[in-house]
Design a protein that fits this description.
398 residues, alpha+beta, eight-stranded antiparallel beta sheet
């Protein structure tokens, strides 16, 4: 995208209205290019003659389709047939808000997927927070592919990852198999399921375009981001639907698109299922998510010019923009313009990567930071604080 900006649309759609939340997509999103090296497994392709072939008569049989394409088509059909029973449509009626929708209740629609939970006999619905946030359980309706309709019995939400879990009291509910998003690679085929524009049980396909996208700005609440990017068509109403691999496993939860029109432009974002599964587990076990924090503000886009100015030979790490008083970061001695290069020996790719790692670290744990300051390396130690406690102090003014 270079220096240009595009809208990022959080895909919750009002029923039949297609309303949605919007933000900005950060600059310089350049998908990596994977080249194949010619060899025995990758022969050099031969040029195709540019001579025109005669058009066959309309009544002439076309002959069988190539076997590889038939196999792929059958595989896609098998995956769709396996997943569709576990894909649900969600309608949520949310309370009226001043200066929004003329003061009338808001009707949002989205998607979700029934997933198994260890120790529970009945699957739960995994979806996006923005689909159900603010709605009371009795005002959230879940529709299954076989026509069954349920009211939500209980809702757990985590605004910082945009993950929500909904319990329904049903019997003989189907469930999708969860995969391993850490094994997903750029170029893998995927299918996206959902209810775009209210069109339930829709399936699209594409590939994984990129991994670990953190430069996506989706408003003030979504702070933990490491999206999978895909070109599978996703539109308003698809929020919360599953992104699935060719083994029929859920590898992501569809959340947002980058678009200037509000419709799919081939750049869509999904929460990796490993992150969503971790959040779901904590929500079901304790009702909330525990997170660590240090107390720094990081530069959202670490530019190459900044890296060169600070004496680095490449853009890496997380650049400190501010250090808040009376925080673990201040106690550790972090300063403005420090570049955090490693956490416990693990290289830091970006500011978002560092935020995610600290968030996953339990409060009270001591961590080692490798820092670039004044063109030399430093080693610092910090004791991770509790994010919820820090937010409570901030709200109370203490």
């Amino acid at each position: 995208m270079s220096k240009h900006f595009a809208s990022v649309v959080v895909l919750g759609a009002c029923a039949f209205a297609g309303t949605f939340m919007a933000g900005l997509l950060g600059p310089r999103i350049n998908p990596p290019i994977v080249a194949q090296v010619p060899g025995p497994a990758n022969p050099v392709p031969q040029p195709i003659p540019l001579t025109a072939s005669p058009t066959p008569p309309a009544d002439q049989p076309l002959g069988p389709a190539p076997a590889a394409l038939v196999q792929l088509s059958e595989r896609l059909e098998q995956v769709a047939r396996r997943l569709l029973p576990a894909v649900v449509a969600i309608e949520a009626v949310k309370p009226a808000q001043p200066n929004v929708n003329k003061g009338l209740p808001v009707e949002d629609s989205g998607s979700g997927v029934l997933v198994p939970v260890e120790g529970r006999a009945v699957p739960v619905v995994l979806t996006n927070n923005h689909v159900v946030s603010g709605a009371r359980p009795e005002n959230v309706t879940i529709s299954l592919s076989d026509g069954r309709i349920y009211k939500a019995a209980q809702i757990w939400t985590d605004p910082e990852t945009d993950v929500a879990v909904v319990r329904i009291d049903g019997v003989a509910l189907p469930a999708a198999k969860l995969g391993d998003s850490d094994r997903v690679r750029v170029g893998h085929f995927v299918l996206a399921f959902g209810s775009p524009f209210g069109l339930k049980q829709s399936v699209t396909h594409g590939i994984i375009s990129a991994r670990e996208r953190g430069q996506v700005h989706l408003g003030s609440t979504i702070r933990i981001k490491e999206f999978l990017q895909t070109d599978a068509a996703i539109n308003p109403g698809s929020s919360g639907g599953p992104l699935v691999n060719l083994d029929g496993e859920v590898i992501g939860i569809n959340t947002a698109i980058a678009s200037r029109s509000g419709s799919s432009s081939g750049v869509s974002f999904s929460i990796p299922i490993n992150l969503a599964r971790s959040i779901m587990k904590q929500l079901l076990e304790r009702g909330s998510v525990a997170r660590g924090y240090l107390g720094v503000q990081l530069v959202q886009v670490f530019e190459p010019a900044d890296a060169l100015r600070l004496g680095l030979d490449r853009t890496r790490g997380a650049l400190v923009e501010a250090v808040y008083a009376d925080t673990p970061a201040a106690a550790a001695g972090l300063k403005v313009n420090d570049v955090i290069l490693q956490l416990n020996g693990q290289p830091i790719r970006s500011e978002n990567h560092f935020i995610n790692l600290i968030s996953e670290t339990p409060a009270g744990q001591r961590v080692r930071l490798q820092v670039w300051r004044d063109r030399r390396l430093l080693e610092l130690e910090a004791v991770v604080g509790d994010w919820a406690e820090a937010q409570s102090r901030l709200r109370s003014g203490r």
